[in-house]
């Protein structure tokens, strides 16, 4: 065991690799992908046009990418983890200088085939980076200040860059994913409690630094009727859409709230609302169940992996995925303020799709090469 | 080994930590699903309603007004097809630009444009503005030609009120106009059915019967999108037209009356003496109600408003005049009823050299040389003033006032049907004390006896008075709207039973009478008065003898009246000027009351010509023409009456 710690020590036949693939996970992703295409098709009132075509193409391209990249050896990801992180930071810096602005924020870089949103890639990069970071650290060393400070700096850099875009939602998701791994690695509970208390105390101070529209969103969250035609409009319309969907929903292509354009951002952040309006409580529960199964499969892969890197990555990615899903759904249900977070796979948007598929391919790679120990 | 245990330890920590995370995830998932349950199942109905409110918008459609016809079903207030242009605000990209283009195409005036901008201020972004209500065919076709350049402009075929016999009936039918805030506040029916562009009655029957005429608005429900654009029609509750109304007016007689009054100021009223149906209520001069439908222009308004003959005044029921000698039959009747005089009572009229004197005041008869010794019949027939001075003095103003009120003077004939109706003045000692706070002088009684002084009546009151004398002394209920409950045969049999009833002691006291109740004590008194009126028209020396009909079937009885508008001085009497030599405003009003046919009375009428001179010359000849027409149309009217009764 000790002797066989060198990288790539285990060899796999092609047949072994195919056998090791988690087909169930692929099927779940394919189903959610199909649902997403159907939903985007519905946002265009049943016309197979711009959004649907784009979304379908992206899904097919990135889904294939997911399948191909699954066969990249997990140790490659391990070795390139910091490169990945630095690449992410560089892209975020590029956004500041060459970014494209849309509706008041600068988030995208034009890469000709698509507009890339580096903050989405950063969501995966941070998990890979932290998985590698904690891979080698002994649980006894984790509590030291050196190992406490380093990851916090690693986390604060991308968060700061994303917040200033400004994109509060993605920054929160990056921070959440990072914290999940720090938690998994075993950092003492007291640090979480302390930082939680500090955050709570400094909250009023932080709020004073927020942009007016961000403040308004938070105030609106606590009272949507404050400004029903302005800041509260989205959440009110979203609740109306979901509520009026009822048990079985209004039926496919029958969602009046989205069809008649009452619903804002229906392709992206509010895609769940549209789905829920048309397919009701039953449909929503099925979709949530599919996501739960997906997360379950990822955690299962984590358990079966031998390396800490793979474990930490899978558990971290599963937690991050859950966070994305929870924040988005809770947001459209009016449980959280509108911060702008897409629903994985479902929402229209290339970068989000790219990062999720990339994240899944690493998971699959962990599964295929589960016997790799990467020098634990 | 140390590393191995360390690894084992690390593995344990990760698993434990994951377990905590998974537990937290399950908890959060629970919150999300229960929230979903709460929204989609517990509160489904609330959100369903909100969703419908979002997507469904209602547009109210204006109802059509009920049609108004005369008694013979001739349409006198119709709904006519009009060409309009509407502007749908949500489809207009540049409002100023659209208005500018429309201005050039259909020729909007500056004040009209100003009104459009005012209206736009008050409307919602998805409302439709009515730019022009009544386009000519030429303008409308031109608009259609340029329509592609006008986003949001819609040519619309609509209906609007139209009065085919415009001037002839405006004082009866009235006119419509845009509902004001006051109209909406005052009438619940208008409030309930209000639609932008709704026309409501402003005066006349259009106003009085608005509640029946308006109808109910329709509702079109459209599915709209978030920006308010109509996507599809969901339902259409059709509007219902207002009730049609049949009036009691005879269009032909009304038209003749207006024709006879042409170029003069005055009124003609005709009434069925049993049913109280107003057959004609003409007032002159008149004006075109169609001009008001789409908002009258300032020029037209000024023309009507500044006319010295006051076309806006409905003279039949809002014009107040001294009744003059038309009151004399009533004075005679009162004196007989109270037993003040008997039929043999005589007064000597000796001409202007020997006037009637009372406390030093002198009261003249209109006849310079005097009438000589006058009995009652002769005094009515020849309209001797001296006789009535004396009778009035003996009778006293309070008894006269009581009988005058009983026969219809001093109160509104149509009750509150027309807001503009006046009740006039029937003076009494009590009235003067209360209103003028002065004692009554006997001299005032004397002139009240010839219908001068304080007494003020409307032409419709005089018509009603004549009707209630001619029908044998029974109270009737005048009306303008046909009422199938009013049955001529029943009325006649009711009157017949009243006739034979023994008279109560109170008949000569102040007393509230019911409809069709007898108003007199002794039928012979009334007979004598009516007979005297017959003499006045059909016998030599009668004041309206020249206006008689010789043919039996047209024979009528009447009474002339000449009402002074200013006191006649001795100098005036000396000059005895011809009518044309007197300034218009100082000329006497000419009056005439009559009923026909004499042997079997059925219709009463009153004629008034403002500043027309004497009643016998200016008013009575009109009555002659009118009565022939009325009686010629009698059979036709009776046929309709029977038909309507059979339908009912």
Please, could you describe this protein's structure?
- By secondary structure, chain A is mainly α.
- Chain A has one domain.
- Helix content of chain A is 68%, strand content 3%.
- The longest helix of chain A has 34 residues, at 271-304.
- Chain B has 648 residues and is α+β, with helices and mostly antiparallel strands.
- Helices cover 42% and strands 17% of the residues of chain B.
- In chain B, strands 2, 3, 4, 5 and 10 form a 5-stranded mixed beta sheet that branches. A 5-stranded antiparallel beta sheet of chain B has the order 12-11-19-18-17, sandwiched between helices.
- In chain B, helix 11 (251-261) runs antiparallel to helix 25 (615-632), helix 15 (328-337) runs antiparallel to helix 23 and helix 17 (385-395) crosses helix 20.
- Chain B is elongated, with a radius of gyration of 36 Å.
- At the A-B interface, helix 8, helix 11, helix 13 and helix 14 of A face helix 1 and helix 2 of B.
Strand-helix topology:
The complex is a heterodimer of chains A (376) and B (648).
Chain A: H1 14-20, H2 23-43, H3 50-69, H4 74-79, H5 81-98, E1 100-102, E2 105-110, E3 115-116, H6 118-136, H7 145-163, H8 168-185, H9 189-209, H10 212-222, H11 233-245, H12 256-259, H13 271-304, H14 308-332, H15 350-368
Antiparallel strand pairs in A: 1-2, 2-3
Chain B: H1 2-42, H2 44-55, E1 56-61, E2 68-69, E3 75-88, H3 95-106, H4 110-122, E4 128-135, H5 137-145, E5 153-162, H6 166-173, E6 176-178, H7 181-186, H8 188-192, E7 199-201, H9 204-208, H10 210-213, E8 218-224, E9 230-237, E10 245-246, H11 251-261, E11 266-272, E12 278-284, H12 290-293, H13 298-305, H14 315-318, H15 328-337, E13 347-349, E14 356-358, E15 361-363, E16 372-374, H16 376-381, H17 385-395, H18 397-406, H19 429-436, H20 442-448, H21 459-470, H22 488-499, H23 523-538, E17 557-563, H24 570-575, E18 589-596, E19 603-609, H25 615-632, H26 634-647
Helix pairs in contact in B: 11-25, 15-17, 15-18, 15-23, 17-20
């Amino acid at each position: 065991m000790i002797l066989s710690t060198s990288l790539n020590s285990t060899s796999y036949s092609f047949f072994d690799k195919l056998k090791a693939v988690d087909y169930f996970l692929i099927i779940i992703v394919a189903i959610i992908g199909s649902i997403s295409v159907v939903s985007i098709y519905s946002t265009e009132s049943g016309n197979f046009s711009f959004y649907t075509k784009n979304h379908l193409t992206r899904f097919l391209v990135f889904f294939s990418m997911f399948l191909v990249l699954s066969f990249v050896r997990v140790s490659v990801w391990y070795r390139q983890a910091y490169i990945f992180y630095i690449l992410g930071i560089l892209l975020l810096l590029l956004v500041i200088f060459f970014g494209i602005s849309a509706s008041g924020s600068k988030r995208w870089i034009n890469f000709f085939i698509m507009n890339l949103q580096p903050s989405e890639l950063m969501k995966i990069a941070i998990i890979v980076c932290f998985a590698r970071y904690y891979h080698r650290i002994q649980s006894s060393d984790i509590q030291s200040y050196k190992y406490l400070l380093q990851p916090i700096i690693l986390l604060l850099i991308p968060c700061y860059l994303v917040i200033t875009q400004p994109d509060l939602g993605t920054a929160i998701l990056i921070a959440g994913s990072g914290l999940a791994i720090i938690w998994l690695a075993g950092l003492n509970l007291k640090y979480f409690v302390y930082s939680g208390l500090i955050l709570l105390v400094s909250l009023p101070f932080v709020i004073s630094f927020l942009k007016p529209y961000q403040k308004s969103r938070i105030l609106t969250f606590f009272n949507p009727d404050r400004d029903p035609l302005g800041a509260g409009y989205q959440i009110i319309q979203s609740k109306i859409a979901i509520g009026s969907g009822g048990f079985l929903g209004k039926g496919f292509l029958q969602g009046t709230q989205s069809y008649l354009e009452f619903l804002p951002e229906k392709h992206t952040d509010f895609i769940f609302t549209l789905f829920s309006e048309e397919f009701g409580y039953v449909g929503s529960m099925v979709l949530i169940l599919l996501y739960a199964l997906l997360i379950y499969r990822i955690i299962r892969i984590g358990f079966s992996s031998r390396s800490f890197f793979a474990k930490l990555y899978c558990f971290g990615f599963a937690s991050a995925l859950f966070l994305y899903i929870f924040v988005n759904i809770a947001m459209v249900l009016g449980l959280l303020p509108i911060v702008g977070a897409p629903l994985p796979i479902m929402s229209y948007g290339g970068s989000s799709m790219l990062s999720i598929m990339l994240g899944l391919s690493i998971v699959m790679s962990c599964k295929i090469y589960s016997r790799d120990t990467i020098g634990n | 080994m140390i590393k191995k245990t360390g690894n084992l330890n690390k593995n344990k920590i990760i698993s434990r930590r994951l377990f905590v995370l998974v537990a937290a995830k399950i908890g959060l998932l629970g919150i999300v699903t229960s929230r979903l349950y709460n929204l989609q199942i517990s509160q489904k109905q609330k959100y369903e309603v909100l969703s419908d409110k979002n997507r469904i918008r209602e547009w109210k459609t204006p109802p059509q007004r009920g049609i108004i016809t005369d008694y013979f079903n001739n349409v006198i207030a119709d709904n006519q097809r009009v060409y309009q242009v509407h502007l749908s605000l949500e489809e207009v990209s540049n409002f100023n630009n659209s208005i500018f283009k429309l201005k050039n195409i259909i020729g909007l005036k500056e004040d009209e444009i100003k009104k459009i901008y005012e209206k736009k201020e008050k409307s919602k972004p998805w409302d439709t503005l009515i730019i022009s209500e009544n386009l000519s065919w030429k303008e409308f076709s031109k608009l259609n030609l340029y329509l592609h350049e006008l986003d949001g402009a819609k040519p619309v075929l609509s209906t609007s009120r139209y009065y085919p016999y415009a001037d002839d009936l405006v004082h009866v039918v009235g006119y419509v106009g845009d509902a004001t805030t006051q109209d909406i506040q005052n009438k619940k029916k208008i409030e309930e059915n209000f639609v932008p562009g709704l026309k409501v009655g402003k005066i006349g029957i259009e106003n009085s019967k608005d509640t029946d005429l308006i109808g109910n608005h329709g509702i079109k429900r459209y599915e709209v999108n978030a920006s308010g654009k109509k996507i599809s029609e969901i339902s259409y509750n059709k509007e219902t037209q207002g009730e049609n109304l049949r009036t009691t007016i005879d269009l032909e007689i009304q038209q003749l009356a207006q024709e006879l009054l042409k170029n003069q100021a005055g009124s003609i009223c005709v009434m069925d003496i049993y049913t109280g149906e107003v057959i004609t209520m003409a007032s002159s001069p008149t004006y075109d109600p169609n001009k008001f439908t789409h908002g009258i222009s300032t020029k037209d308004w000024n023309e009507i408003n500044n006319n010295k003959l006051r076309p806006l005044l409905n003279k039949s029921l809002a014009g107040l005049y001294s009744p003059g000698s038309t009151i004399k039959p009533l004075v005679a009747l009162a004196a007989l009823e109270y037993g003040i005089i008997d039929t043999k009572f005589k007064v000597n009229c000796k001409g202007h050299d020997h006037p009637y004197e009372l406390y030093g005041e002198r009261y003249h008869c209109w006849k310079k040389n005097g009438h000589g010794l006058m009995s009652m019949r002769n005094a009515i027939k020849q309209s001797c003033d001296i006789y009535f001075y004396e009778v009035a003095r003996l009778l006293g103003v309070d008894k006269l006032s009581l009988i005058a009120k009983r026969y219809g003077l001093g109160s509104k004939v149509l009750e509150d049907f027309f807001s503009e109706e006046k009740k006039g003045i029937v003076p009494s000692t009590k009235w003067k004390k209360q209103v003028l706070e002065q004692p009554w002088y006997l001299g005032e009684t004397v002139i009240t006896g010839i219908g001068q002084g304080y007494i003020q009546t409307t032409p419709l009151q005089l018509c009603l008075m004549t009707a209630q004398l001619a029908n044998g002394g029974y109270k009737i209920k005048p009306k303008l709207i046909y009422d199938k409950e009013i049955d001529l045969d029943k009325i006649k049999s009711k009157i017949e039973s009243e006739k034979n009833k023994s008279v109560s002691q109170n008949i000569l006291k102040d007393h509230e009478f019911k409809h069709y109740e007898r108003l007199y004590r002794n039928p012979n008194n009334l007979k004598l008065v009516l007979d005297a009126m017959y003499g006045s028209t059909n016998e030599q020396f009668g004041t309206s003898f020249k206006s008689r009909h010789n043919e039996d079937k047209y024979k009528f009885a009447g009474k002339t009246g000449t009402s002074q508008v200013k006191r006649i001085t001795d100098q005036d009497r000396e000059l005895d000027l011809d009518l044309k030599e007197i300034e218009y405003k100082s000329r006497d009003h000419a009056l005439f009351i009559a009923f026909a046919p004499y042997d079997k009375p059925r219709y009463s009428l009153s004629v008034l010509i403002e500043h027309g001179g004497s009643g016998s010359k200016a008013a009575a000849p009109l009555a002659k023409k009118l009565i022939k027409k009325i009686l010629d149309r009698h059979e036709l009217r009776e046929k309709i009456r029977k038909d309507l009764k059979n339908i009912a």
